[in-house]
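Entry type: protein chain
Record version: 2
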Amino acid sequence: MLAGLLAACWLLIPGNVPLYDGVGFPDEPYRFVPAREAGTPAATTATVRLRMVGGLNPGGLVANSAERGPQISVFAPPQAFQGPASSTEMVLLGEPVPLVEPAPTGERVSNVYALTFTADGTPAQLRPQAQAPAITLRASSVPTPSPVMYYRANSTSEWRLLATSQIGKDNFTAMGPGAGEYVLAQGPRPPAQKSSDKAALLLVLAAAVVLVIGALLAVRRAGDRAKGDAVA
């Protein structure tokens, strides 16, 4: 199953992706909101447009921010969103925003990202019977104990601790409860939750797809820049 997903990743990314020896592309420095140094690049958004049929999205897509080593990645599963029956497109947006106090418990190690789902100008809802989106945030550092992901529906709600998995050196993934704000902070692990082996496998596979697509896109951009330099 994972092999099929990885093959699909290659097919979904147009253009020639150069080969490389191992994971030899280090992450760029973390882009904070607000910026900590003058003149540093701004943090970017992750956005993707999903086709809607009868108010549902028949296909799934991945949204990655544009940093080398995306700071946010979102896997939008098929048929996970419900919009108006007449809607033809849904826009998923993960945008870095300034923190509105209070902050979650512990040292904050990522930007706050506001996640929205909009179908033809109307907020779309997650379907409870469908697989939830997988949210992956890159940490600016990995303290001990490791960071965990927090969620709140809006800036006036309380932060809620999510079951969090570490994927790679500095990437942390959780299932998204819905639109709202997400952030990584050093803190305790959430209490053990009852979940099926299938749900856990889907989370790992979704996170793997997110990271692979992000890596392939970064490699492709590097190849395109190299070609442009050669032509110049």
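Comment: The longest helix spans residues 197-231.
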